[in-house]
Amino acid sequence: MASETGKQVVTRFAPSPTGFLHIGGARTALFNWLYARHHGGKVLLRIEDTDRKRSTQDAIDKIIEGLDWLGLDFDEPPVFQSDRAERHAEVARQLLDAGHAYKCYASPEELEDMRAQQRANKQPMRYDRRWRDRDESEAPQGAPYVIRLKVPTEGETVIHDKVQGKVTVKNAEIDDYVLLRADGTPTYMLAVVVDDHDMGVTHIIRGDDHLNNAFRQLPIIRAMNEIEGGWPDPVYAHAPLIHGADGAKLSKRHGAVGVEAYRDEEGVLPEALFNYLLRLGWGHGDREEITREEAIELFDLDGVGKSPSRFDIKKLQNLNSHYIREADDARLASLVAGKLGDTAEVALLTKAMPVLKTRARTVNELVEGAAFLFKSRPLEMTEKAAALLDDEGRARLAGLSVRLAKENHWTIEALEATTKSYAEELDLGLGKLAQPMRAALTGTTTSPGIFDVLVLLGKEESLARIDAQASLAG
Ligand code: GLU
After folding, report:
1. 92 φ, ψ to 5°?
2. C-beta 241 within 6 A of ligand 1
3. The CATH number of the domain covering residues in 10-77+241-310
4. Rounded Cα distance, 100 and 92, in Å
5. Out of 53, 252, 314, 406, which one is annotated catalytic?
6. Could you tell me which CATH class the domain 81-239 is placed in?
């Protein structure tokens, strides 16, 4: 399927490496990916690594790893913006030669004076176009210069943004910004436009913090289209940024903002984050649970909301518990084993998963729930568990141990029947017996059903744990 412009859809995600994949960036990537997949187009990745200090290999790897974890694949190898400086400079020269750009010889001191004056006069702080109409003959001999874009000063620029609607800016408000620095290096604004064109990008879907940039980028596109043709306006869609619960732009002070933190610290599954990020700013009726396949089928730009959505960890956890219940047991077992370390057995975890996963909202909670399986004797007790193992509790365990030892069928039904009849013998509610059992078997006061615990631990280990506590009875 092609876009409404009749061409194959090409979208891109263009992160600047900052050390991790930001939740907001991940959502932008997701929207670009879904739009391309929905239209049978292409989605590309461009690493905007022109800030060499921040763009370490590690920062780049983290972004690629985060995207990969979310299952967002790209149709071509990544483009590195820093590799393309010569091409960016070439376009700046073309604009210069065609009269759409000019050399500016203003020194940094001169520009500082200009800004100080503007500040004093309470004027907007903007380059005053002092070299725009000067003749080359006025240029100081051999002095360094920058190349600035000659932005039309009359009229206005209109963008029919797919999310924001019609947005108009007076051209006089757009400054003649620098395209090429005095040392010949391109600016970010030029690089983005040239790369988008050369990568054949048809749809630019990104955060609305870039809406102002669109008005600065379009004059380059239009000038190049005039010069050589083949530079159509892209379709723009600027999605509102994600906010925190307090309504302020999502930042570190709201907690984790990196995708890897949700994976590692919060124990979120990729399909849950995928679904959550999709719903964060895009809706299809009141559907909450939407699979990857459904998302590809349903996604469009009309469904992207105009007002910022608030990040809600509770909603993410709810979706996560849904996806945990849906997930394959062996897969969850190996995730949990990875977090538990060497002592964990994947086979036992897989067997335990059906009872563990009904109780967990996160992989971390699965880990907590599974920990009892691999504890070594004598079990370390939480304070509450220790309190249940008073003389009375231990005496009950001792009696129970004798009966369980005779059990030939180590099944939930048989164990339940035996335990119940012993409780009746003692004239106790089942809970009064189950509580010290839980303490002895798990070292805690919360666990899956006590008969599930017995079955998962097996007869030998269960009795050994019970006896280790019962034998201490005074
Ligand atoms: N590199 C920019 C960012 O990380 C995005 C540029 C764009 O999408 O045009 O915010």
Report:
1. -60, -40
2. no
3. 3.40.50.620
4. 9
5. 252
6. alpha beta
